[in-house]
Amino acid sequence: MSPASRLRNKKSNNHPFVVSFRLVCLAFFGAIGMTFLFLACALPVYQNNWNPFIVIVFYILAPIPLALSKRAISNGASNTALDVGIFLMACLMVSAFGLPIVLAHSGVIMWGAAGLVLAGNVVIFMTMWAYFVMFANEDVDYSMW
């Protein structure tokens, strides 16, 4: 069996190295997104204003509706639960993108800081999306580590 065909094998996707590599990549991109957020708050150019850090609440709350709706579907609920979870997650994501724009428009933060927060939002929410895509199947056995 060639190495390329082994990589395409479905069982090789659950190999502990592959799972841990995915987790390391997710952690790396999460750290990059948080770095953008910290730079938007802590740089002296942007007046050491920590108001943009409020978006961390959206980072914490955004995946909860989708996780709960996926759990409800696994218990036999209809697809309506998934639709509601996706809708609530989208509302929280739009709020996370809108808050720095509103803060910058009202003069609470500078536009450069708002740009850094928006860049951090893109990276963090893409990391969340990647997590839900990578670990969508529940076949990953974490006890293999």
What average pLDDT do the residues reach? Answer: 85
Number of strands: 0
Using only C-alpha atoms, the radius of gyration works out to: 19 Å
Q: Write the H/E string, N to C.
A: HHHHHH
| Beta-strand content | under 5%
**What overall form do the CA principal axes indicate?**
flat
How far from one another are the termini?
25 Å
For the largest beta-sheet, the strand count, sense and barrel status come to: none
Helix content: over 70%
Layout: helices, strands, pairs:
Blueprint: H1 3-8, H2 16-42, H3 56-61, H4 63-74, H5 79-105, H6 111-134
Helix pairs in contact: 2-6, 4-5, 5-6
Describe it for me?
α2 runs antiparallel to α6 (about 110-135). The protein is an all-alpha fold and about 140 residues long. The chain is flat and about 50 Å long. It is built from six helices and no strands. The longest helix is centred in the first third of the chain and has 27 residues, at about 15-40. The mean pLDDT is about 85. The protein has helices at about 5-10, 15-40, 55-60, 65-75, 80-105, 110-135.
